Structures are given as structure tokens and as C-alpha cells.
Amino acid sequence: MAESSGKTLMDLISADPTPVPAQSTSSSSSSSTPSPAAASAASSMHQPMSTKTTLGEKKSKRATLMQIQSDTISVAKAALNPVKANIMPQRQRQRKKPVSYTQLARSIHELAATLDQKSSQKQLVNHVFPKLAVYNSVDPSLAPSLLMLNQQCEDRNVLRYVYYYLARILSDTGLSPGGGIPTPNWDALADIDAGGGVTRADVVPRIVNQLTSEASNSEVEFHARRLQALKALTYSPSENSELLSKLYEIVFGLLDKVADVPHKRKKGVFGTKGGDKESIIRSNLQYAAMSALRRLPLDPGNPVFLHRAAQGVSFADPVAVRHSLEILAELAARDPYTVAMTLEKLASPAGALQDILHLHDVLARVALARLCHGISRARALDERPDIRAQFNSILYQLLLDPSERVCYEAILCILGKYDNTERMDERASGWYRLTREILKLPEATSKDKSNKAKRPQPLIKLVMRRLESSFRSFSRPVLHAAARVVQEMGKSRAAAFAMGLEDIDESVHVNAFSDALDDAETNDSSHPEGIRRTSSISAGPGRNETIASLLASLMEVVRTTVACECVYVRGMVVKALIWMQSPHESLDELKSIIASELSDPAWPASLVNDVLLTLHARFKATPDMAVILLEIARIFATKVPGKIDADVLQLLWKTCLVGAGPDGKHTALEAVTIVLDLPPPQPGSMSGLTSIDRVSASDPKSALALQKLVQAAVWFLGENANYAASEYAWESATPPGTALMMLDADKMVAAASSRNPTLAGALTRLQRCAFSGSWEVRIVAIQALTTIAIRSGEPFRLQIYEFLNTLAEGGVQSQLSEMHLSNGEDQGVSGTGLGVLITPMLKVLDEMYQGQDELIKEIRNHDNANKEWKDEELKKLYETHERLLDFVSLFCYIPRAKYLPLGPISAKLIDTYRTKHNITASSGSTDPTVVATGISDLIYESTQPAPAASNSSGLDDDLVNAWAANLGDDGLLGNNAPAMSRVNDFIAGGGTDAPDVDEENVFSRPSVGYDDMWAKTLLETNDQEEDDVRSGSSSPDSTGSVESSISSHFGGMNYPSLFSSKPSSSSQTTGKSGGSKYQSTYEGYGSPIREEPPPPYSYSEPQSRESFENPMAAGSGSRSYESDDEEPRKSTGTRFGTALYDFTAGGDDELNLTAEEELEIEYEVDGWFYVKKKRPGRDGKMAGLVPVLYVNQS
Amino acid sequence: MILAVLFANSVGNVLIERFNGVPAEERLTWRSFLVKLGAENLKGVKNEELLVACHKSVYIVYTMLGDVSIFLVGKDEYDELALAEAIFIITGAVKDICGKPPTERVFLDKYGRICLCLDEIVWNGLLENTDKDRIKRLIRLKPPSEF
Fold it and tell me: Does any CB of chain B come closer than 8 Å to the CB of residue A135?
């Protein structure tokens, strides 16, 4: 190893396979006089992969490519001339030093010309072709020589390579999957060298023609080549419709000849040695045709396609059978009825599908399971229960399959997990099937079985036994898969409970069902003897098994699996446990498992977040579990604050809070706020009243993350306390009498807590945060308190007012630490440093109280003098009302139509004025200077007619629940919110995008100074005042109650990274600029805890949080707070440009340009544009990176 | 779909890679992810001992064979178990060609034939041939079943 580890791919491949000299331990010394191309290619391969293609590297890569390019041009020229060079000197040179691509290419040309010599063929097979395989793609200019070899060469080994390379030329569309040493873009190269360049476009038709004629050659001796030719053809990109139709023609032509002969398949025999020659050749051709058909696009409406696919089931070749089943399974997903009708005979007890149960090809049986599932669940076959039963029976038999892969597929199919589309009803009935149905082996197969095997088996028992034994396996894939199956089982079970399926009592004896079935069968079965015997046998020790007991014993085994050393297996086990946790069971075990798991530093952040997302999904399935899930989520916050995605956690808090229902809201809020009680990173601070698990935030990074989490929690509390407490100033059922306001502070606290303990508790927590903890937390706490003050009625508002006042003046510490005492003494400003921040907040409250006082005075005056209100007086009142509304709206969202800053008594007067002057309450004001009432307005505005609003006294909980349950499905909240889309992606089971390699990037998010944020907020608000006239018009009065209160909780929360609430274009009436300003405003308020919202995981968004190595990722670093304004531009306002010069792509991600070409600029990354062309270039590529300087932006 | 087949040496250089249906801009990330996964977990692992990982709904099975680590990434029907089957076939083929668990040197010497084998085992992202003898015949341009 020592001698070879220092070598690179390039060195080793390009050198002769004879032992290398001892000095060649490094690439520089091994190639004493390397050709420049080889050397630089080698050096680029030397780099660890992680840095291989950073942008800096690109330059050297480009240099390499330029070298290859210049070499190649000369080769291409040489190739045009008659080959005269002697190959021997060439070989000798190879012995001494690495071979460059150029040399390889030249050798091919030369050797192709001298094929008659045996040595040439040897040379090709042993040296040239294997080395060529190292390169990323094959130069089209090699095609003529390859085709020549293809026609003239007899040597099978040479030919096999020729087919391989021809296929690679066909498949090369600039996105070749080749890997290896990068090669230049040959087409662009050929363009440069206008004289002798050969492009793909030149050679592909020739290759296709030759391969097509070979694929149609029916000579017996030729049939192996025919297979390879057909295979190579399938590599051509499927966009080429002409070629595609040609391929269909060949394949169907082939099947016409070989498929129709009646043929008895020989089970499970691969070689079928000893079969007659004709049938073997036929079988080979059947295989080739079916394999090619599998690679062709599905043709669902075509009866011939279906017919041929169905014929494949009876072919002798197991791989052909597999392909045909896979095709059928896909067709069945679209049109189960037709497929079922076609396969009707094959599914019968003696049919070919039964034979496949014993076929020695795992994936064929997997495809069979999918096919059977697709057909047996089809609604279209409701009238043919017989067919469904046949397929069902095959599916159930697959549960007994020796391969785990097949058995699990069958279990998943039974559970209703077919693809990534989650359907609640399918899942629920899946659980029902699993727990209720019985596997009866059909007569035909049970002849040779013992009675015991023939006994009908409850599916659940089979599955449980199988899974339990799997969990004893040592193979990590098996453990992982088994845990995954248990997780899916949990999902189906949760769905069954959620749907309230009748008869899911898990304490029923599993054998009860089979007994019932037995009894039924005894009456009409033709074999009463056997069945009676089996039912007596079944009265064995397993009699007392219930589903619950089976599950319990399974879960016991699952739990032990957390001992597995593989963290991914453990992750899957934890997910399975979360899904199998039922709302009524004790949570302690799960909690302790998760807590101890999370303490393991081996857990990658992605996996931790996956589990967090699982909690989301679990919540969606069972909203009852909100509190339980929050408790689990709390463990994440305490154990691995540095690893979890605060956005996702917030979203979880929010959805759980909403889903917890009227009774659970208090508990849910408590569960969230427990985060606040975590001891802050500094030692000696508040250790919290509630006992919690120890925090693992010992290192500075975790401490920082925890800090952010605490901020998030504080913010969350401020935004949602009113919701959780159902306490709103504008919905107060019993407006507090003025007497209450006369109370002194401690009595007020007592009154408040008796009135609404939830809100009182939240206030206490926030007050504590406002003077303890870090600077950032204190700011957020003050903001949260202000929000609550504005939204709550008395006495809470007064209580907060007093608190803020005191805080501004100092001396709060003592007041709070001894809450029951009044704040008698003043201890100075107590170092909160929040005076500046508090002042404007206090001013709002001051003004409100002042306004209220004046109003009361006025009313008294009017009452005493017994005079009517004059219009001017009303106008003045109304103006004060509006002014206060505007002022208040600066701090948090309130429903303008209902909010009464002057107190409930002003309602009547304001109404009077409005009626007089024909101002609709919903529009609030015709004054153009009103302030936005919140994103929620935008979001809820045009997208839905507000739900029935007869219930004006509070939230309609059903509605809220419905909303929560549909969280992922309604587009209202902007699915572009990163956390949201992540959750949705996860729940939908989608997402194959590349993983995030970097785990620490939480800290690379830019932080925003509070001052900047504040300044920005004010600026933005002013702009908005000019632009926007529409404020508040979203809630028609009649619907105001429910709508506004909902929006105040969901849309109105405005935590930017949570919902990031970018109004979708459909729901936004004020235009994009208005929308983004709204957002900015509200982000402003939430912003001290704002983190850069991670861009959504998606293929199209290359700025997703990638590793540092990803050149694309560079863009995310430059995204700052202000980047919100770019957001819409990025998605909608694409820029255009034209190419200034020709550009040759230097890698997969780059794009060739021809001067003057028109381009669409998607985004810019570190001196590169990601552009799209109007039409594909010669290389077929549409989009990629080009240097900024090559593009003239229009 | 088998999204990726990747061979790397012990220091994380990619020897062979085959991507199917992975956008160009994500390949690099996958590559780094896999190499990192290998670097973290493959130390001291026995030959052909299977390791597993997952990312969202994508499964990864990987193993060590001599000096070479082999990674398979798949989704949908190519779950951990199907990938385990595929990796078993691939390691079998590599061992057959190299005669034993290969050193990097031997692996590179047999590079061409390994590529051909891979071509017969994974075809356009789908597992194709699973039988050793059949693969052997096919890379010599013989028919899959002989008479």
C-alpha cells in the first residue's frame, strides 16, 4: 500500500501495468518527464475530492483542459491524415512515462488502422481501452475509428470495449455520468478547430445507424453482438424522438419474432444449460428486448406495449421477467384495470405469476409485490373481487419470502405505503389489513407442504415474527430496513387511529380472526377435514396473543436495537419509536432513549433534524400528541441546541400549540417555555424553576445556539401567549371594570393570574427574561412583553406597563425576585441597558392610556351636560383612534377593524362616526398614511373567503385544528418558507437532493445588528406608507373575528424565518414591492432573533446550505439581512444578457457559449453567472455556469 | 433508481463514479458527502462489511474492499436492502476480476474490466445482471446464456 498510496489515478492508469520503479512514490517523481497534460491532470487528481472543484481550482483545471484541447486538436488533425506512424516507438514511450489522452486517442486511430496484426488487438484490450476508461468522456473524433473497429475486428474483447465507448459517446450530453479525469467539451473544441473538428452531432447518426443495423441482424452467430448493440443504443438520450421511435421499432420487431413462441419457463435456472440452442438464443433475445424496453419511456396507452410487457412474465430469462414485472407494475399504477385484465390468467393459482414467487431474482419478486399491490388496491376493480383476491393472495404469500427485501416490500404494500404519496385512508386501511387479514396458502402450492404450513396465518403474526428475527440480524442494512418498516407500521397505525377506524381494538386475540375464518370455511369448504385439524392445532401456546402483546414484544426488540453502533440505524429506530408511541402510553422510556442518544456526539445534524421533522409528521398524524411531542422536542433543545434547526423547531412549537386544542394550549405553551428555563450559558444565572435535563451546551458554539433558541422561544412566547391564553383586548368577554385598574401592583398580579393563569405565567417568564439572560434575549423579551401588552386586555396591559416603567427606571430586580412584594425600593438602573428600547414602547402605552383618560373625561362631560356628540368631536376621537392604531401597528400585528386603542367604551362612538361618514370598518381609514396591519392580511386576503364567523367570542377551535392538520397542504402560508418546505418535503417523503456536508453552518449565518434592524424598520415603514393605501382592507367586518384572530396567530406571528410569509403572487394585491416591504417591517420586529432563513432544499436552488466546497454555496455567505429584497428578483425577475465571447465549458457545471448567444441569467455566484440558454447548444446543454465577464447584461 | 455508484481509494480520491439522475450541481456535494462518510466510518471495517446511511428518502450503503471503498446511493425501490444486494454483486465482480480484495494498484490495473463489469451490473441506474457467470460472459461479448 505504501508504494501505491502515493500514486494518483492518472499515474497508475497511464503507466504500463508492469511494476513501477521504486522511486515512483509520488506523482512528481514517477513521471520524470511527463507530458504537461498528464502532469497537470495528475495534479488535479491529487487534490482531495473536497477541494477538487472549488473555484480557485477551476483555473488549474482549465489549464489542464486547454492542454488536452491543444493536444486533441493535433490528434484530430492527425487522424484525418493517413496513419503512417509506427506504433512500436509509441509503445516504448508508454513504458517510460504516463500516457496522455492524446496518446491514447492517437493509439486508437493507429491500432484501428492496423487491426490485422494480432499485437494491435492485444494492445487495444490491455492498454489503450482500459486507460481510456479513466477519462470522463470520449472524444467524438474517436468514433470513426471505433466504428471501423466495430466492423472489422473479430476479437470479442476489443468489440466489447468498442460497444462500451460507443455507448458513452451516445450518452454524453455534457452531463456524462463518467466521472474520472475531466475532459474538455469536445464539441466546443471541434468548433474552435473549424478545419477538422468532429462533433457529436457529426458522429451520432453514424453510430446509431451502425448499431441499428447490428441490432436488427438476425444471424445466429451475431446475436451476442446484437444484444450489445441494442444495449448501447438505449444509452442515447431519450429526448431524441426519432431515435426513440427507431428503438421502439427494433424492440417490438425483436419481440414479434421471439416472444410469441409458446414457451415453458424453467424455473430459477440461470444458464439453462442443456436447453436447445434455438430456445436459448430466443431467450437471450427476449432478455435483450425486455431490458431495452425497460429503458424506454413508458407508453401507457399502447396495447402492444402492455401485451409485450405481459408476455415477458413467462420468459425464461429471470432478468427479462424482472423487467417485464417492473414495467407492468408501473403500468398498473396508472391503469390497473387493463393490466389486471391482461394478467388475469397469469395470476391464477397455476399461472406464471405464482412461479415468480420461486424465481431466483429478488428484484423480480419485489416488482411482483408492487404489481400485486397496485392491482389489488385498485378501485377500478371493485367489480372483480376475484381478480383482486388473486393478486392479494400472491402479495400475502410474498410475506413468506426468504429475502428480507421482498418481505419488507410486501409489508409496506400491505401497509399502504406504495410510493411517496401519503394517503391517510390508504394507510389506515393498510393497518386494518395487516391486523385483520389472514394468509391462506392456495391449494396448488400447499400440496407438498405440511399441515402446519397450510394453517391460515394472521398477517400480523407473520410480520411480527419476521421483524423480530430481523432485529436480531447483524447486518446494518437489514436493521435499518426493519426499523424503517416499523416506522411505516407506526404511520399506518397512527392513520388508523386518526381515521377512527372501527374495530381497531388491539386487545383482541389475533387468532380470533383466523378462527372465525376457519368456522366460515368449514361450512362450505371441500376440505373440512384438514381445516378442522388446523384449527385444533392453532389452539396452541400462541392462543393468547393479542395485537397489543405482539406489538409490545416487537417494540421491546426495537428498543434494544438502539445499541447498534451505526448512528443511522439508531436514528431510524428512534423515528420508529416516535411513530409507534401512542398518545396514552408512558413517554419516559422514549424520552430517556432520545436523551441518551442525543448525548452521543456522533449524531450528524442532518439526522437530528430528520428526527425533529419526524416529530412534525407524527404531530400531523396525531394532533393529540402535541404536548408529548413538544416534550420530546424539548430534549432536542436542551441536548443538541447546536445541531437543530431553530426554524424547524419553531414551526413545531407553533403547529403543536395550534393543534393542542383549547385544553392543551396551556400545557403546550408551558412545554415551549421550558426552553426559557434552561440555565443560560453563563454559570450562576437562573437555573429555572422546573427541573429539566442537564443542558449540553458546554462549548461556546452550543452555548450560542442555545442562546438563539432561547431568543426564539421568548419571541414565540410573546407572539403566541395571547393565543394560548385566549386573551385578546378586542375579544374580551368581560371588559374589566375601571375598578380593577385602580388596584395596586401586587393585587393586580394576583387578579391577573386568577383571571388567566396561562397569560400570567407567560408574563412572569418574560419578565424574568427581561432582566436576566443575555442582551439579545432581554431585547426580545421586552418586545414580547410589549406585544402582549398591546394585545391583552386589562389588567395584563397595566401590569406590563408598570413593569416596563419600573424597568426603565430601574429596580426591577428586587421587584421580580420577590414578586409578592411591591416594588418599594429603587435600586438604580440595574444594568438592563434597555431604557432606550423601552421608551418608545412605553410611549405607545402612555398614549393609549392618555387617550383613554381623555375619552372618559369627554364622555363624562357629555353625560353630565347631557349633550350630543358633535361631528368635530367624533372626528377628533376617530383621528386619535386611527393614530393610535397606526402607532400600535408599528409594534405588532393587531386586527385594525376590531382593535380599540381607546378602550371598549370607544366602540360605540367610533362606530357612529364611521356610519356617518361611510367609512367601512374594514378599510379602517381612507387615510393613505396608515400602516400595514400585517402579512397575514396579505396572505389571507384573496385566497380564501374567511371561514364562518358567527362565533365572535373567540377562536373556532375546530377551524384552527383543521387548519393545523392541513398545515402542509394549504398554500396560504407560503410554501416558500424554508422551514415549512423542509417539513413538507419530509412529510411527503421527497427529497433526494444532495446532503449537507457541513454541519456547522448555523454559525455562518450573518447576524444583524439591532440598530440596523431598527433603522431599517423605520425606513421601510415610511416607504410603505407612501406606497400602500390598502391597509387593513383585508378583513371585512363580518368575518373579522375568526379571520383576524387566526391571522394574528399564524400569519400575524411574522417570525420571518418561520413562515417567512412572503405573500405569494396569487394572494397579493399590492404588488411585489409592497409585499416585500411588509415582510421587512415585520421581520424588523422579529429580527433580533432572526436568523438567515436557510434556503429551501430543492434541486433548483443551488444556494441551499451546501458544503463549503460547493462553489455554489459561496452565494449564501453573501446573503445578508437585506437579501430579502433580492428574493423576489431571484425568483421572478430574471435578467437577460448576451454572450460576448465564445466560452468553452471546463466541467460538468459549466456551459459552452457562442458569442452573441442570448442568455437568461439566473443568479450570480462569485464571478460566475448561472445562465440558461434559449435553446440547447450543440452539446445539448441548456444551463450552467459561465464567467461574468463573458456576458453582457442587458 | 441507483443514483450513484462510487469507488474511492483510502485517502478519498474518487476512482470510478457513475451518477444517474443526479443534477450536475449536486454531484460534487454527493461526492464530498460520501467521501466524508467513508472517512468517518470505514476505518477498521472488515472487508465487505456493509454500512448504511440515509439522507431524506435516499439510502446509502457502503463498504470496504481491500484498499477501495465502494458507495452506492439509491432511492425508491433501491432501498438499503436492494443496494446491499447490488453492492454484493459489485464486490463479487471486483473480487473476481482482481482475484482477491484489491489493492489500489491492482484495482487500477484492472480498471477497464471493472468498468465493463459495472456497465453490465448497473445499466442506466437500474440493476441489470446479478449472476456472476453471466456478467463474466457478457464482458467477453458472449451471450448471457450459452448453448
Answer: no
Per residue in A83-134, pLDDT tens?
Answer: 333 444 444 443 445 677 888 888 888 888 887 778 888 888 888 888 888 8
**Is pTM, for the whole model, over 0.90?**
no
Task: Choose the mutation target among A568, A572, A645 for the interface with B, i.e. most B CBs under 10 Å.
Answer: A568
Residue A106: CB atoms within 10 A of its CB come to: 23
Q: Is the ipTM of this complex over 0.85?
A: yes
What pLDDT is attached to residue B117? Answer: 93
Which of A8, A12, A1112 best tests the B interface by mutation, with the highest count of B CBs <10 A? Answer: A12
Q: Domain spans of chain B?
A: 2-138
Answer whether A618 touches B (CB < 8 Å): no
Give the closest residue to A461 by CA, choosing from A540, A549, A366: A549
Give the residue from A315, A205, A203 showing the smallest Cα distance to A259.
A315
Least-confidence region, from A192-206, A691-705, A1163-1177, B50-64 = A691-705
d(CA A780, CA A782): 5
Per-residue pLDDT tens over the stretch A419-456: 767 778 888 888 888 888 888 766 544 444 444 445 77
Record: contact A179-B85, CB cut-off 8 A: no
**Residue A795, preceding peptide bond in cis (omega within 30° of 0):** yes
In angstroms, the CA A655 to CA A983 distance is: 11
Chain B CB contacts of A476 below 8 Å: 50-52
The Cα B57–Cα B73 span in angstroms is: 11
Closest by CA to A720, choosing from A782, A779, A672, is A672
> Per residue in A15-70, pLDDT tens?
544 433 333 333 333 333 333 333 333 334 444 443 333 444 444 555 655 665 56
Q: Which of B33, B36, B141 is opposite residue A156, by nearest beta carbon?
A: B141
Contact status, residue A336 vs residue A378, Cβ threshold 8 Å? yes
Interface probe, candidates B40, B113, B145, chain A, greatest A C-beta count within 10 A? B145
User: Across the interface, do B19 and A179 touch by the CB < 8 Å criterion?
Assistant: yes
Q: Estimate to the nearest angstrom the gap between the alpha carbon of A116 and the chain centroid.
A: 57
Q: Where are the beta strands (DSSP E) in chain B?
A: 2-8, 14-19, 51-55, 58-65, 68-75, 122-123, 126-127
pLDDT tens profile A584-630 = 888 888 888 888 888 888 888 888 888 888 888 888 888 778 778 88
Name which of B10, B53, B143 is nearest A224 (Cβ-Cβ): B143
* Rounded Cα distance, B147 and B139, in Å: 17
d(CA A914, CA A900): 14
Interhelix angle A700-725/A775-791, rounded to 10 degrees, is 10
- Asked whether the beta carbons of residue A234 and residue B124 sit closer than 8 angstroms, the reply is yes
**Chain-chain contact of B147 with A276 (C-beta, under 8 angstroms):** yes
Other C-beta atoms lying within 10 Å of the C-beta of residue A785? 29
Give the pLDDT of residue A1116. 38
Q: Long-range contacts of range A209-213, CB-CB < 8 Å, 24 or more positions apart?
A: A210/A147, A210/A150, A210/A151, A211/A166, A212/A246, A212/A250
- For domain B2-138, give the CATH number: 3.30.450.60
Do B105 and A3 count as a contact with CB atoms less than 8 A apart?
yes
Of A413, A330, A405, which Cα lies nearest the Cα of A377? A413
Q: What is the pLDDT of residues A688-699, one digit of tens each?
A: 333 344 444 456
Identify the DSSP state of A994.
P
State the pLDDT confidence band at A529, using cuts at 50, 70 and 90: very low
**What's the CA gap between A818 and A217, in Å, rounded?**
96
Which residues have a Cβ under 8 Å from the Cβ of A1140 and sit 6 or more positions away?
A1155, A1189, A1190, A1191, A1192
Alpha carbon A168 to chain centroid, angstroms? 32
**Helix A476-498 × helix A547-560 angle, to 10°:** 140
